[in-house]
Structure formats: C-alpha cells, structure tokens
C-alpha cells in the first residue's frame, strides 16, 4: 500500500500502486483487482484532488507505457499514435523538430496523454480550437471485460469514445490514442500584453479582441481591494512564423526552450501564502507586465508554462496543501461572474495564481468541463472557512447554469455535482453498460457517487 | 470520502443517541447529504434523533446495537458498512452509574466494565478490520479525563475509561500507515443526559463544545485532544500530585 495524493496534497489515501508496462500487464492487473476495491489509472498525478486515488484498491501507474508508436508527418492532418503514459513534455520534444505541434496544452506539460484525455484538458486556445478531446481521432481502451477496443468519435463506438473523454478514467484504462497535430514553422509566439485597470475593463477587452488571437488568457489580482480589485494582465498571442523571428532565433526556429531552475524543497510551513506574500506577489506580477506591448516574441515556457520552470511548486503551500477552484458560467451570466470574483477578493482567503479566460464551444463529451462562457481559476491554501466560501461559490455557479472542473476539484458534494453536469445520467448509463460490476473506481468516483 | 476540506460523506455513531455524538452529526450535517448510521437500542430518542438529522438533509439509517451483546456489536458493524464506506466512526456510548454503588454492587461493576471497556474495545477491533479494507477513515473514541488519573470519587468509571483510552491510543499507533486514523477525545465534565442531576465540575463544557473541538481535531488529523483545551494542563499537573496529597484534593 502506498499513500497517494493529488497535486493539491490534500486527503491522501493508500492504494496498491501497480506499474504496467504492456497491455498484457494491464489485463492481468485488472484480473487481480476484480475482487477488491477496483482500479483507476494514474499518470503524473497532476489532477488536484482525488481523481487518481483509489483507497484500498489498485492504482495503475501508466507512466511506463511511454512509447510514441508512430508519427504521420505528411498526412492531412498530421497525426501521432502514442501510448497513454507519454507526457506532453516528451511528446512536444519529439514532435517539434518535425515542425509538428500538440494542438492543446494545459498549464503544465507534465501530464500524460491518458490524463489529458480523461480530464479533457483545455488551454489558452480553447476559444479558438476547443479542448484536448476535440483533437483525438481514436483511442485504445482496455475495458472491464479485458478486451481492448479502439474507439472513434463518429462511428458506433462514439458514445463510449465521448464518455471516455472527460470520463476521469471510469470507463476503462486508456492505453493509447491517435491525436491530430498542427504544423508550425517556429516554437515561438507573437504576444500582445495589456494591463487592465479592473475586472470590467478586462472582460470588455477580452470580449472585443479575443477573436483576433489563437491564444488568450488573463492573470488577475484577487488580493487587492477597492479600486485595484481585479486589475489584470491580459496576454494574447499567435504562433510566430519564420519571418517574425529575429536573426538569432532563425538559426534554430524550432528550439524547445525549457529551462529548469530546480526543485522546490519540502521546507515550507503552512501559511507561507498569506495576505502579505500574496500582495507582494500580485504587485510584482502586475507591475512587471508592460502597460501595453505588441508583438513581443516569447518562447514556449514563458508563454505557456512559466510554472514548469520549477518542479514541485505545490510544496510552497505547506503540508496542509491547497485546492484549486475553477468554474465556468455562460457569457450571459457575467454578473454572477463578477459576484464570484468579489466574493473571493473579499473572503479573506488569498489566491495568487488567478486565471481568467473565455471558453469557446464545448464538445459532445457528457462530462467535459468547457462550455461557452467565462472561466475563472483560483488557488487557495487550505484554511478554516474555505469550505463555506467554496459552498457559496457552488451555489452561485449552479444557479447560473455553470460548473466546476473535475480535474481541479477535491471537495464537491455528489448532489451539487449532479446539478452542474446535467448529462451525468447519460454518462452513468454508458459506464454501467461497459462496467456493470464497477471495476473502475476512484476516491473521486466514491465522493461524487459515479456508480 | 473525507474531502480536501475535512467534510465527510458518511458518519457512524456507535451510541446513536449520545448527546456528544449527535452534536458531532449536526456539525457535519450542514449543507451536504451526509449518510449517518445511528447504532443504538431502539427507542424514542433514536427515532427522534433520526428525524432531526433527516430534517437537516442527512440520509439516516438506524441500526440496533445492544452494547453488552457481542453478537449485536458484530451485526451492527456489518450492517453499517454494508451501506458503503464509513468515513468517520464515533464510539460515543458510555455509562456513568452511581460511583459508590459501582464499587459495591458487583452487577453494576460488571455492567460498567462491559459497556465502557469490553464493548468499545471489541467495536474498535471490528471497526479497524473494516476500515483497513477501505484504507481510509477515522475512528473517534470519546474517552474522559476521568481515565487520565483515576480518582477515588469515581474510580470504577475512571478505570474503564483509562482502559479504553489506552486501547484506542494503541490502536492509533497500530494503524499508522494503513490510511486509518484514530482520535481520542478526553472531555472534562460535560453537561449532558449522562450527568443530569450532578453538580457541574469546574471547566464544564456542553456537548456542542466537545463536538466543535472534535470536528476541528479530525480536520487537523490530531490523535488526542482535551475539551476544553486547557484541561490538558490541569490533568498534566494532577498526574504528578503525590498520592497523600491527591486524596486530600476535593475532586
């Protein structure tokens, strides 16, 4: 038994961690787990809550299923067939020299393909290009009966395909997938940056200008009150073409810039992220951004994954850990959205890494998170009273017809969850059909009654 | 599952009509559809407790438990876990008895020993067997400061609490690394149905205060707490008072 926790380092439970290196290994792991408390796949452990935990049962470590099986660079679109344990980081390093680009990148590259599919992750280009599931052409699923089935989005396997996209590993073990790729001339971005004075200014600018950019995201200040409330830095950009690069960068236009400043040591006490440090951070982050700058060249890491520079950054929050609250509400509910921001800012709970974005259309997956609307993410250290803040936010989000993101969640109740995901029954019906005994199980599934 | 903020999904009260146990249930009941299993003798009190918790939004199951009957204890635990994982189990029942009768009437002596020691110890083992299978969960044992240094004035009760307190501290050690944790709660004088008619001792507390401290301790993953908290230092002092002096103290 090994204690396992998510990225938020909360509610750890113990499970048998079984490494699988082959399909036959996965099948025999399923067989031996049949009489116990079920199986869930686990990748790099980047979901914040209990999605890849299975108390008393089996967690299948898929990170050794890490081969890129084939690349079709000439096809239209170009595609790659990979095993589920391949990380997006490794995949990008493999594809970039060929001028190929992974279509959807979340806030870290340290996630597996299996995890990206199971959580249907999204990135800064959701408003223009959708979530990860939109780019999956087929996936290989090991089912409860021990068979491997290849699923596609548009034949008779489509219902199970879409239930698996965003299905949090509860339909089977994702073994591999074929993903459509984009072509790129460079690994750089042309980025426009704007400081916005408050939340209204920010939302107005995003509503008007986002369509001109493939990528768009805003950081905002959730600590300052009064006239600075919700002041923000908006960064938007497009893929740079070869002609956009400087002479120096043209020598190696597809260079993968991924600096590493080491690993955060396990020395931080609780309450290191407090009002004082958060205020200092927020001021620094706001004022280091230019007021208005156009066409700056940025590399992958600085534009997409600034947090990947240091490993294990979640340790900054101390042993009590933290949670991430990410929700979306429809565009028509921008008033609710503003109220939620106000509630967070005035709550006394502090959050540094606050991300605001406009989503585009969702996809057919019943448990996929994105829907057209405003999404907000805040990182909150675990402290007394946080439950009542989150419960109040839940109520506002539900009333607005919005929802909370399962990959981030570590605390929703089953009843609230059911209200947020109106297509839950559709998902459960498919799950019961392919896994009648409930072989696939996780702490998240128990918490949310996904049976 | 207990979520990231310490909120449980299911709660088992062994001693389903205990004032402290029900106060704990009420604290956890807010806002969630908590599954509560009330294990107690069938009675109007149990029915009323179930109705009250149902009105608070809980999904309540009533299970019969006769504390002095080993078969009943086994059946109660089995029924409680048949409905799914139990996140928090509170061993809440106990018997105070008349302290003078307790050491002169052999029947009452045995009853106190069985209800306050044999039953909690048996249930502790049954609980730990179930919870190690699920690899998560908390066992909360309601002990008493009376067991920390046993006094002449209620030494039969005190000795049973000393025994069960020691057992649950040991169980907590034995369960380290299994994902199951044990919390021993040592209240001072609690104004409850158990102490009805008695004069309240100094630093007396209400069941609600014990519940509040217990919920906080579960969240903080503590192993032993005193209620009120300063009682810890009082007892620490009393433990070291020499016997000739101790017997002269008006306690």
Automatic annotation (TrEMBL), chain B:
<protein>
    <submittedName>
        <fullName>Heteromeric decaprenylphosphoryl-beta-D-ribose 2'-epimerase subunit DprE2</fullName>
        <ecNumber>1.1.1.333</ecNumber>
    </submittedName>
</protein>
<keyword id="KW-0560">Oxidoreductase</keyword>
<dbReference type="Pfam" id="PF00106">
    <property type="entry name" value="adh_short"/>
</dbReference>
<dbReference type="GO" id="GO:0016491">
    <property type="term" value="F:oxidoreductase activity"/>
</dbReference>
<dbReference type="InterPro" id="IPR002347">
    <property type="entry name" value="SDR_fam"/>
</dbReference>
<dbReference type="InterPro" id="IPR036291">
    <property type="entry name" value="NAD(P)-bd_dom_sf"/>
</dbReference>
<comment type="similarity">
    <text>Belongs to the short-chain dehydrogenases/reductases (SDR) family.</text>
</comment>
<dbReference type="InterPro" id="IPR020904">
    <property type="entry name" value="Sc_DH/Rdtase_CS"/>
</dbReference>
């Amino acid at each position: 038994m090994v204690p396992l926790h998510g990225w938020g380092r909360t509610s750890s439970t113990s499970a048998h961690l079984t490494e699988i290196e082959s399909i036959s290994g996965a099948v025999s792991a399923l067989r031996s787990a049949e009489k116990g408390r079920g199986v869930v796949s686990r990748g790099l452990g980047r979901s914040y809550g209990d999605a890849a935990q299975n108390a008393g049962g089996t967690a299948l470590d898929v990170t050794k299923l890490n081969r890129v099986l084939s690349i079709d660079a000439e096809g239209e679109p170009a595609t790659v067939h990979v095993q589920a344990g391949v990380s997006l980081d490794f995949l990008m390093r493999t594809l970039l020299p060929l001028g190929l680009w992974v279509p959807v990148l979340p806030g870290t590259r340290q996630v597996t393909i299996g995890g990206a599919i199971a959580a249907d992750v999204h990135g800064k280009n959701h408003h223009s290009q959708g979530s990860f599931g939109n780019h999956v052409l087929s996936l290989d699923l090991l089912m409860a009966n021990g068979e491997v089935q290849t699923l596609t989005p548009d034949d008779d396997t489509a219902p199970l395909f879409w239930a698996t996209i965003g299905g949090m590993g509860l339909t089977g073990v994702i073994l591999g997938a074929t993903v459509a790729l984009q072509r790129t001339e460079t690994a750089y971005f042309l980025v426009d940056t704007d400081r916005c004075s408050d939340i209204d200014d920010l939302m107005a600018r995003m509503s008007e200008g986002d369509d001109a950019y493939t990528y768009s995201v805003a950081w905002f200040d959730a600590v300052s009150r009064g006239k600075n409330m919700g002041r923000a830095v908006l960064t938007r950009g497009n893929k740079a073409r070869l002609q956009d690069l400087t002479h120096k960068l043209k020598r190696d236009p597809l260079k993968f810039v991924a600096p590493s400043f080491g690993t955060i040591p396990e020395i931080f006490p609780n309450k290191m992220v407090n009002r004082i440090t958060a205020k200092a951070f927020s001021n620094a982050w706001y004022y280091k951004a230019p007021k208005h700058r156009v066409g700056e060249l940025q590399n992958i890491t600085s534009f997409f994954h600034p947090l990947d520079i240091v490993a294990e950054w979640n340790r900054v929050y101390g042993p009590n850990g933290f949670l991430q609250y990410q929700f979306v509400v429809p565009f028509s509910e921008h008033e609710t959205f503003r109220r939620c921001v106000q509630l967070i800012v005035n709550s006394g709970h502090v959050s540094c890494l606050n991300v605001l974005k406009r989503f585009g259309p969702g996809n057919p997956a019943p448990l996929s998170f994105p829907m057209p609307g405003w999404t907000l993410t805040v990182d909150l250290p675990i402290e007394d009273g946080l439950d009542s803040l989150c419960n109040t936010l839940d109520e506002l989000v539900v009333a607005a017809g919005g929802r909370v993101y399962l990959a981030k969640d570590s605390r929703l109740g089953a009843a609230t969850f059911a209200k947020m995901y109106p297509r839950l029954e559709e998902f459960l019906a498919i799950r019961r059909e392919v896994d009648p005994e409930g072989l696939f199980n996780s702490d998240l599934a128990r918490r949310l009654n996904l049976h | 599952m207990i979520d990231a903020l310490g909120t449980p999904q299911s709660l088992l009260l062994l001693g389903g009509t205990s004032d402290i146990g029900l106060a704990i249930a009420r604290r956890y009941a807010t806002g969630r559809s908590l599954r509560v299993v009330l294990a107690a003798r069938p009675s109007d009190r149990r029915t009323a407790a179930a109705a009250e918790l149902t009105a608070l939004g809980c999904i309540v199951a009533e299970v019969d438990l006769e504390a002095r009957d080993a078969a009943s204890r086994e059946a109660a635990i089995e029924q409680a876990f048949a409905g799914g994982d139990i996140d928090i189990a509170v061993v809440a029942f106990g018997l105070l008895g008349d302290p003078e009768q307790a050491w002169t009437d052999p029947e009452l002596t045995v009853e106190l020993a069985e209800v306050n020691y044999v039953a909690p110890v048996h249930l502790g083992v049954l609980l730990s067997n179930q919870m190690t299978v699920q690899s998560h969960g908390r066992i909360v044992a309601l002990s008493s400061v009376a067991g920390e240094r046993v006094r002449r004035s209620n030494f039969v009760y005190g000795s049973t609490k000393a025994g069960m307190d020691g057992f649950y501290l040991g169980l907590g050690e034995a369960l380290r690394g299994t994902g199951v944790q044990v919390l021993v709660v040592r209240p001072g004088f609690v104004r409850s149905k158990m102490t009805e008619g008695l004069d309240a001792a100094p630093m007396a507390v209400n069941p609600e205060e014990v519940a509040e401290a217990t919920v906080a301790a579960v969240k903080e993953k503590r192993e032993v707490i005193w209620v009120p908290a300063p009682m810890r230092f009082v007892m620490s002092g009393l433990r070291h008072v020499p016997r000739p002096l101790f017997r002269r103290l008006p306690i």
